[in-house]
Amino acid sequence: MTTTFDTETVGEVSPAEPPKQRHILLATDGSRAAEKAGRFAARLACGIDARFTVAAVAVEHGDPITPWDMEPVEHAVPFREAEMWAHRLAERLRADGLDATEAVLVGHAAEALTAEAVRGGVDFIVIGQHGRSDAPPHATGSVAETLARTSPCPLLIVP
Length: 159
What we know:
There is one protein chain. The chain is of the alpha/beta class and about 160 residues long. It has a single domain (about 25-60, about 70-159), classed as HUPs (Rossmann fold, 3-Layer(aba) Sandwich). Helix content is about 35%, strand content about 25%. Helix 3 (about 110-120) crosses helix 4. The protein is globular, with a radius of gyration of 16 Å. It starts with a strand and ends with a strand.
């Protein structure tokens, strides 16, 4: 018998119960940390029945995300660039025989990823420790830090 773990219960799985396909949200910003997180998630998925949504977040420079945002976004990410990041990482997963779709989200990264996780029924999120910022290698980036506090599901931060 196999013991499975999820956010609500821990218990025995009967032999007649088919394993549930896991939905992994893999966040990318095109950085080396995101690529490393993608490689780790691919290895992890080999041991389980999993499908991926590879998501990148687009934000135009100077555009407020919502009417109540007072300051323009500091790090602009054009839609086409975000689309390229998601496509490139999803293609790598598909080349490894994994089920991967792409999504370009719009908004503040942590909020957009949280909303996608809820909307898509995601089992867990995988993200690099820090992305395109100039953060030191041992620091956790702001998106990963925010997700650690607000994620609706388990979060795997890959150093």
